[in-house]
Structure formats: C-alpha cells, structure tokens
Design goal:
The structure holds 2 protein chains of 2 kinds.
Chain A: E1 3-5, E2 10-14, E3 19-21, E4 24-26, E5 32-38, E6 44-50, E7 56-58, E8 64-68, E9 73-78, E10 87-94, E11 103-104, E12 108-113
Parallel strand pairs in A: 2-12
Antiparallel strand pairs in A: 1-4, 3-9, 5-6, 5-10, 7-8, 8-9, 10-11, 10-12
Chain B: E1 3-7, E2 10-13, E3 19-26, E4 32-38, E5 44-51, E6 57-58, E7 67-73, E8 76-81, E9 90-97, E10 104-106, E11 110-114
Parallel strand pairs in B: 2-11
Antiparallel strand pairs in B: 1-3, 3-8, 4-5, 4-9, 5-6, 7-8, 9-10, 9-11
C-alpha cells in the first residue's frame, strides 16, 4: 500500500539553527511530492513541490527540499530557523499524472526555542 | 490570486443537529474539490472527493449518509454533517486545485465542536 512516513513527531531547534525534517514515501513509481505547513487552527500552505527535473527544489520562506530516489526520501531543510517557523509540517504525495488525491504523512511539530 | 475560502471557521452545535460547511474557489473554477478531516495533532485524512454535477466519491469507512456533499457549481462545494454527535467533533478542511497550477490549495479549515 502507498504510504508516507514522517519519522519525527516533534522537533525542537534553537532559533538560527539549521533544520531538517524527514519524509519517506512508499509508492510504485515516483510521485508528485509536496511539503505543506500548517499553523494552529489554520489550513495548509504549500512550501514547495517536486514533480521532475532538478532534485533540489527551492520553496518559500527560505525552505528547500531534496528528492533522493534511491532513498525514497524528500527531506525538508532550512539553513537558519526563525521563531515564526514554529508550526506543523506535512509531507504529502500524489500519484504521477493524478496530482489531485494527496496522501499525507503524520506531520512533524516544529518548536523553535529563542 | 486563486484562493480557497472555507466558512465558517468555527462552529459549535448541539448533538443531533446538522451543520453545513462551505468551500468556495475564488478566482478559479474547480470541478473537483476534496474534503479532509483532521483530529488533534494528527494528519489529514481524505474523506471524499466532491465532483461538480455528480455524486461525491467517499473514501472507505466514511459514512456518506452522515457526511453529505453537494457540489452544485464550479466554485462551491458544501459538506453537511447530519445529526452530529460529539465524535464528529473535528477539524474539517477542503481543498481544490486551480487548473492553472499543479498543486492543491487548501481552505483555512472549520473547527466543529458538537456538545
């Protein structure tokens, strides 16, 4: 069965430190890959996406993610975290060619210490 | 720009009553919209796919008679939680894809509390 795994439920980093949130997927083919961020009581905002091409993708708010086919991973990174980055982060996938039906990981709650 | 607008943002109702949640696509038309449910500190679970002009497609385990979906126009889908009970309390989020883009836009969500 298709699945998305975010191994880290909670992560705490100091402001200014680097960040990496992990995401692994299990699909028969390379899917569309997404990272979304959710603030408390809010909907989801797209940070970045990967469809094909360059495996290092840049997103909004200084985030980037790298697709590694051999590891079935799409980890999210940020060189220097800001206090406003504290939120819930979801990795999501959609089947290639489908693009609509998203399967979400369980999410990673990011806490930023000042 | 393209936005998905969801209303209301929060609703409290008595057990046994029905609640309607609206999801509108602004500045684009959406033949398909999606409804998700999210429990506290958990991920989003797809409930159903709303299809304009036809019946919704429900995911396994979702009661279609409990969660009525109507997609009567290209910019509006509604989710009605019928005869709500406390176990229906949850955060409901809709989404739609602007055909000019390749990713899903999400509404701001509706927190439903059933007393």
């Amino acid at each position: 069965a298709q699945s998305v795994t975010q191994p880290d439920i909670h992560i705490t980093v100091s402001e200014g430190a680097s960040l990496e949130l992990r995401c692994n997927y299990s699909y028969g083919a390379t899917p569309y890959l997404f990272w979304y961020v959710q603030s408390p009581g809010q909907g989801l905002q797209l940070l970045l996406k990967y469809f094909s091409g360059d495996t290092l993708v840049q997103g909004i708010k200084g985030f980037e993610a790298e697709f590694k086919r051999s590891q079935s991973s799409f980890n999210l990174r940020k060189p220097s975290v800001h206090w406003s980055d504290a939120a819930e982060y979801f990795c999501a996938v959609a089947l290639t060619g489908g693009g609509n039906k998203l399967t979400f990981g369980t999410g990673t709650q990011l806490k930023v210490e000042l | 720009g393209a936005v998905v607008s969801q209303h209301p943002s929060r609703v409290i109702c008595k057990s046994g009553t029905s609640v309607k949640i609206e999801c509108r696509s602004l500045d684009f038309q959406a033949t398909t919209m999606f409804w998700y449910r999210q429990f506290p500190k958990q991920s989003l679970m797809l409930m159903a796919t709303s299809n304009e002009g036809s019946k919704a497609t429900y995911e396994q385990g979702v009661e279609k008679d409990k969660f009525l979906i109507n997609h009567a126009s290209l910019t509006l889908s509604t989710l009605t939680v019928t005869s709500a009970h406390p176990e229906d309390s949850s955060f409901y989020i809709c989404s739609a894809r602007d055909g000019r883009a390749s990713w899903m836009l999400f509404g701001s969500g509706t927190q439903l509390s059933v007393l």
